[in-house]
């Protein structure tokens, strides 16, 4: 039994709620801390039904002392109590929830569960092969109830599609979060291990509720001292707190640690003393944290040390660490590598370095590959490594925090972007989702100390979506948006409709006003906030937006076909054939793969220039439409969050225009073309756009 067989019942649930919900008054002011686990009181018929049942978790004796089951039971009680709300008005029928958590009938996949009507009695049987499955099943049941489902007819069977469903935190020990837009780090290293912030428990609950089972607690640009014993004590405290929630802790390791903190003269992975050092280090970790997940490593990338410093390969480096952890854990080795001395297209480098190593990695090594060949852009084609290493476990790395999509203030729901990649046919052994199924998915977290965790209410949806898609990549964005909106904001069906539409349109709007038609990496230097397509003179060529857009008087776009960098040749023939011809390529990848004349005719009959300007304008209208739609929801959403979202949308409206105008001003300085008919010229000069500076932009 692979993949979830959850049936989409949201439609029915909505239908049952119509009527009652329409009259519902908005909830009192809320600050977003409860995420999608608000369990807002039901109303109408759904409430009557739930209130009429007296639910009893029925836990067999041998599971009573199981900490994970205790968490599940506590959550069930909390959730149901909150969903019913104040007073019970209806006479109650006893309704058992029978915990059967050592049952292989559901299939042996850890975390799987089945919820079905109890045979021969009033109640539900929650069946799972392990306690984790019972915990995930509990959260699934609560989700169904939150959506208004009648508990008596809940009937679900589900299993995670992949074993590792992770968050990667880019949190530094001093509390700063690299590319973080939600305040400071949630990890209080300073006070650990003595003090454990209650937030660490709420964080674990939120993760468990969406199936996340692994957390890398520190930045991939790692500090070696985070491997020292005093940190191991801190990890132990966290790991002990998270274990009942099914979460294993992982740590980013700096490859040069043997020298940095170990007093060795080298970190050469083939040096016996280095190998012994890592082995002893791993043993130290496992003594404190027996289920320690393993190490995540960024090596020979953006100045980080790695095996190539000693003329060794990525496989030499990864395998040395894999041997140190042995069958106790996993080494996750990142494929995000590129070098300033490599003259070829940056988009080709990871494939060139890793694909020849296929088959050379130890069994407990996973190569973590970003969704696209560049770097978390609003849109990229899928990474050509997916499918190209059949003898190596690959996992997908995504970025939940929106470094290149407007930070926390722009609304961009990322499920459609991730599904686009997961569903992409690699042409070599299935879709990306199928390629990564034996390993997993990681998302670079967007959490921070902000009360609402994610820097904006809508960014919580991206955390939620990452977990849901890692559990089941076949879930539609629409379904994820709807279930999130109901749990997070309101059950008012029209409001849910509006919110889901805003979410589903949002990412494409960002693509249109920032990087339309396959453009990429036009963001300002360093912080990546706002447009700066004019930057051409940074030391490293591939740090310049000019390197990516290649615009001049005649045209724009990066020729990655055979007449250019031929990055296209890294894809399977069937895929390359689709993208090789500028006439037939999917329009959204046009300028990613082709350099096109400004005056070239597009299918629309317009020139490229006209179509580009039209895309910018469309992006702006879409943001305006989102803002307007949200204004109409003032009665359906609590005032505090309504205002917070409205303020963000106003920022987004302004910044979408900034992106459009600054970009157009720059393109016109190159092509000298008049504005297409009906399109307004940028209100400021190019010099004025260039002069804007934001040294205080967060996240750097
Ligand atoms: C880039 C970020 C940088 C990260 C790097 C990475 O700008 O902060 O360190 O990716 O993934 O997107 O290693």
Brief descriptors of the model:
3 domains; 700 residues; signal; Chitobiase, domain 2; eight-stranded parallel β-barrel; 36% helix; 15 strands; TIM Barrel; binds beta-D-glucopyranuronic acid; Glyco_hydro_67_C; disordered N terminus
Can you describe what's shown?
The protein has 3 domains: 3-158, Chitobiase/beta-hexosaminidase domain 2-like (Chitobiase, domain 2); 164-411 and 426-458, TIM Barrel; 513-558 and 595-690, Alpha-d-glucuronidase, C-terminal Domain (Alpha-Beta Complex), CATH 3.90.1330. With 700 residues, it is an alpha/beta fold. The two termini are 44 Å apart. The radius of gyration is 26 Å and the shape is globular. It is built from 21 helices and 15 strands. α3 links the parallel β1 (53-58) and β2. The longest helix has 33 residues, at 639-671. The site of beta-D-glucopyranuronic acid has 10 residues, from loops. Keywords: Hydrolase, Signal. InterPro entries: A-glucoronidase_C_sf, GH, Glyco_hydro_67_C, Glyco_hydro_67_cat, Hex-like_dom2. It comes from Qipengyuania atrilutea.
């Amino acid at each position: 039994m692979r993949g979830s067989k959850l049936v989409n019942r949201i439609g029915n649930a909505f239908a049952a709620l119509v009527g009652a919900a329409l009259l519902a008054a908005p909830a009192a002011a809320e600050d977003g801390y409860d995420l999608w686990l608000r369990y807002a009181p039901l109303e109408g018929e759904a409430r009557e039904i739930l209130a009429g049942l007296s639910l009893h978790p029925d836990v067999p004796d041998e599971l009573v002392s199981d900490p994970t089951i205790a968490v599940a039971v506590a959550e069930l009680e909390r959730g149901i109590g909150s969903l019913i709300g104040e007073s019970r008005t209806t006479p109650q029928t006893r309704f058992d929830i029978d915990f059967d958590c050592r049952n292989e009938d559901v299939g042996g996949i850890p975390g799987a569960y089945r919820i079905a009507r109890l045979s021969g009695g009033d109640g539900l049987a929650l069946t799972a092969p392990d306690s984790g499955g019972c915990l995930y099943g509990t959260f699934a049941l609560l989700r169904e109830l939150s959506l208004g489902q009648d508990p008596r007819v809940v009937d679900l069977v589900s299993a995670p599609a992949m074993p590792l469903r992770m968050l990667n935190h880019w949190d530094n020990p001093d509390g700063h979060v690299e590319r973080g837009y939600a305040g400071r780090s949630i990890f209080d290293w300073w006070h650990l291990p003595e003090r454990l912030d209650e937030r660490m428990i709420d964080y674990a609950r939120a993760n468990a509720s969406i199936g996340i089972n692994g957390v890398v607690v520190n930045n991939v640009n790692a500090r070696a001292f985070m491997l020292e014993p005093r940190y191991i004590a801190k990890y132990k405290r966290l790991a002990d707190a998270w274990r009942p929630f099914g979460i294993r802790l992982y740590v980013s390791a700096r490859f040069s640690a043997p020298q940095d903190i170990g007093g060795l003269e080298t970190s050469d992975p083939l040096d016996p003393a280095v190998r012994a050092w890592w082995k002893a280090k791993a043993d130290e970790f496992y003594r404190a944290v027996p289920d320690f997940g393993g190490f995540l490593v960024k090596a020979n990338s953006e100045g980080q040390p790695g095996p190539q410093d000693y003329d060794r390969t990525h496989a030499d480096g990864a395998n040395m660490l894999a041997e140190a952890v042995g069958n106790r854990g996993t080494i996750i080795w990142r494929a995000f590598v590129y070098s300033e001395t490599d003259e070829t297209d940056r988009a080709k480098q990871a494939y060139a370095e890793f694909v020849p190593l296929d088959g050379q990695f130890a069994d407990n090594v996973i190569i973590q590959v970003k969704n696209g060949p560049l770097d978390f852009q609003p849109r990229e084609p899928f990474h050509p490594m997916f499918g190209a290493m059949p003898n190596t476990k690959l996992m997908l790395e995504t970025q939940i925090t929106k470094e290149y999509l407007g930070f926390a203030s722009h609304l961009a729901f990322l499920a459609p972007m991730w599904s686009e990649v997961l569903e992409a046919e690699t042409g070599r052994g299935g879709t990306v989702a199928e390629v990564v199924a034996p390993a997993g998915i990681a998302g670079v977290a967007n959490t921070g100390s902000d009360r609402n965790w994610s820097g904006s209410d809508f960014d919580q949806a991206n955390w939620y979506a990452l977990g849901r898609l890692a559990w089941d990549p076949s879930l539609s964005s629409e379904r994820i948006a709807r279930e999130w909106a109901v749990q997070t904001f309101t059950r008012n069906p029209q409001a849910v409709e509006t919110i889901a539409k805003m979410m589903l349109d949002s990412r494409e709007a960002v693509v249109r006003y920032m990087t339309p038609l396959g453009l990429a990496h036009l963001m300002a230097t360093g912080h990546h906030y706002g447009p700066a397509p004019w930057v051409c003179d940074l030391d490293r060529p591939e740090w310049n937006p000019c390197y990516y857009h290649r615009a001049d008087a005649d045209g724009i776009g990066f020729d990655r076909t055979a007449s250019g960098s031929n990055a296209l040749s890294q894809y399977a023939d069937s895929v390359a054939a689709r993208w090789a011809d500028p006439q037939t390529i999917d329009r959204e990848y046009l300028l990613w793969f082709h350099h096109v004349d400004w005056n070239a005719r597009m299918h629309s009959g317009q020139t490229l220039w006209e179509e580009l300007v039209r895309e910018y304008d469309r992006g702006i209208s879409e943001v305006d439409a989102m803002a307007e739609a949200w204004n109409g929801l003032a009665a359906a959403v609590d005032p505090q969050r309504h205002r917070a979202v409205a303020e963000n949308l106003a920022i987004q409206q302004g910044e979408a225009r900034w992106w459009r105008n600054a970009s157009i001003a720059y393109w016109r300085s190159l092509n000298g073309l008049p504005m297409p008919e009906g399109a307004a010229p940028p209100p400021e000069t190019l010099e004025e756009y260039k002069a804007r500076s934001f040294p205080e932009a967060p996240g750097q």
